């Protein structure tokens, strides 16, 4: 299944269903995204892979009444939900488009993304195309996941799923939530796409999901590499129930271990925190869009 098809079917509907829990989990990443972008009043901002609108609206607030923020996504279910949540905000708009091929006008000062740019078939071509949306001197700032071993919210459910489905395929550089884990690789991709002063900065962030252990386990299984393994293998209802049970047990065990060790994973069944590592990539566009594609 292609990325577009997945985000317009069950994966997109799943994110709509889970958006309250997901936005709560991702609140520190949202703050990191907005802070790293250093948005100024009156700037025009485009949020790539905007999802259910949280990052887009945060950018609009940072820009003030003279600024504006656009959200771009390929998912109809997510965009419909984003529009319903955004209401009548005058400086927020949404567009369904593929950032890899959309004919952008040169109208934005900043491109931002919270986990929305790791799903491109050809990242170099995609970023070269997005560079055309930036005015001279514009900039891009995105947050992306580091390796799976540094992200318990992904590794814990994946291990639970692999117990029943066998090892997942190696996580490489293809489209997926961890495609930007290799800082050196991305620091090479972006100059080839027409960006200068490229820097990737590892940043550790505490993520604290809401809800019960069951809620947290289900949310973890519905996102990241575990969800992709389950979708690929198509387990039986019985196997899926066992995977859910294993993930719940792993979450519960992690909470208990953290409580004993005095670590900030939470001390009750209602929540836990995971120290995940992410990369903040920041770039400055070359002065002319014609230089975007080498």
User: How confident overall, as mean pLDDT?
Assistant: 83
Radius of gyration: 19 Å
Portion of residues within helices: 40-55%
Q: Which structural class do the helices and strands define?
A: alpha/beta
Shape: globular
Measured between the Cα atoms of the first and last residue, the distance is 31 Å
For the secondary structure, the number of strands is 7
| SSE pattern | HHHHEHEHEEHEHHEHHHE
Strand content: 15-25%
**Lateral arrangement of strands in the main beta sheet:** 3-2-1-4-5-7-6
Which runs of at least 5 residues are low in confidence (pLDDT < 50)? 264-276, 283-294
Largest sheet: 7 strands, mixed
Enumerate how many helices there are, as a single number: 12
Describe this structure in a few short sentences.
With 294 residues, the chain is an alpha/beta fold.
């Amino acid at each position: 299944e292609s990325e577009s098809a997945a985000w317009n079917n069950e994966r997109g509907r799943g994110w709509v269903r889970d958006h309250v829990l997901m936005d709560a989990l991702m609140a520190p990443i949202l703050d990191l995204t907005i802070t790293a972008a250093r948005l100024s009043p009156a700037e025009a901002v485009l949020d790539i892979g905007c999802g259910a609108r949280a990052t887009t609206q945060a950018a609009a607030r940072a820009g003030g009444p003279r600024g504006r923020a656009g959200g771009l996504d390929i998912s109809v279910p997510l965009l419909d939900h984003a529009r319903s949540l955004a209401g009548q905000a005058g400086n927020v708009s949404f567009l369904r488009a593929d950032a890899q091929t959309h004919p952008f006008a040169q109208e934005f000062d900043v491109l931002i993304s919270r986990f929305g740019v790791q799903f491109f078939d050809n990242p170099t071509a995609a970023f070269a195309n997005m560079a055309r949306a930036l005015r001279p001197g514009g900039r891009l700032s995105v947050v992306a996941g580091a390796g799976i071993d540094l992200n318990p919210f992904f590794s814990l459910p994946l291990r639970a799923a692999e117990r029943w489905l066998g090892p997942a395929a190696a996580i490489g550089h293809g489209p997926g939530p961890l495609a930007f884990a290799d800082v050196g690789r991305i620091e090479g991709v972006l100059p080839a796409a027409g960006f200068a002063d490229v820097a990737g900065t590892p940043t550790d962030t505490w993520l604290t999901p809401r809800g019960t252990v069951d809620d947290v386990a289900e949310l973890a299984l519905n996102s990241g590499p575990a969800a992709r393994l389950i979708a690929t293998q198509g387990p039986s209802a019985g196997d899926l129930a066992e995977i859910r049970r294993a993930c719940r047990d792993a979450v519960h065990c992690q909470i208990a271990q953290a409580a004993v060790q005095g670590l900030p994973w939470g001390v009750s069944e209602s929540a836990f925190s995971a120290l995940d590592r992410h990369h903040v990539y920041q770039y400055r566009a070359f002065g002319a869009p014609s230089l975007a594609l080498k």
